[in-house]
Amino acid sequence: MKYTTKSTYTYPAIFKEQSEGGYHIYFPDIEGCFTCGDDIEDGILMAKDVLAFSIFENYEELNKELPIPTSIHQLNINKDEFVTYIVCDTMEYRCKFSKKAVKKTLTIPEWLNEAAMEQKINFSQVLQEALKARLKVNS
């Protein structure tokens, strides 16, 4: 996957009230992106999660261009439906679920290596912490 600094996306979601209760939720702009929720709060949380998953797995990981979000005013809905925007953060999703590690080769001064080895410093941990701080990524 090619890293991108953009990780926050906003797309319209259509909530369809179900006769047995709860909501069926789908994103008209993102193919195969749908979920359900027991109530509005649960539906919004589920919608945020499925949107992040869909964008991460089907677009970012495959380096595919995302569709332009449709304005909520351009969507035709039925009387048992409503539309709202859902915001997701794929970086948050990536940090939470993508634990794949990659090996990196780096060069540091010999004296710094020796000092760190004496202190039994975990180089991988320090590098991860430094990169997260530099990129302003929480996980």
Task: Write a concise synopsis of the structure shown.
By secondary structure, the chain is an alpha+beta fold.
Structure explained in plain terms:
It is a single chain. The chain is α+β, with helices and mostly antiparallel strands. Helix content is 37%, strand content 19%. β2 (23-26) and β3 (34-37) form a beta hairpin.
The low-pLDDT segments are: none
Q: Quick check: average pLDDT?
A: 88
Largest sheet: 4 strands, antiparallel
- The backbone outline, from C-alpha atoms, is elongated
CA-based gyration radius: 21 Å
Count of individual beta strands: 4
Helix-strand pattern: EEEHEHHH
Q: Report the total helices.
A: 4
Helix content: 25-40%
Walk across the major sheet and give the strand order. 3-2-1-4
Question: How far is the first residue's CA from the last residue's CA?
Answer: 19 Å
| Category by helix and strand content | alpha+beta
Strand coverage percent: 15-25%
Notable characteristics:
single chain; 139 residues; alpha+beta; four-stranded antiparallel beta sheet; 4 helices; 4 strands; elongated
Helix and strand topology:
Blueprint: E1 8-17, E2 23-26, E3 34-37, H1 40-60, E4 81-89, H2 90-97, H3 110-118, H4 123-135
Antiparallel strand pairs: 1-2, 1-4, 2-3
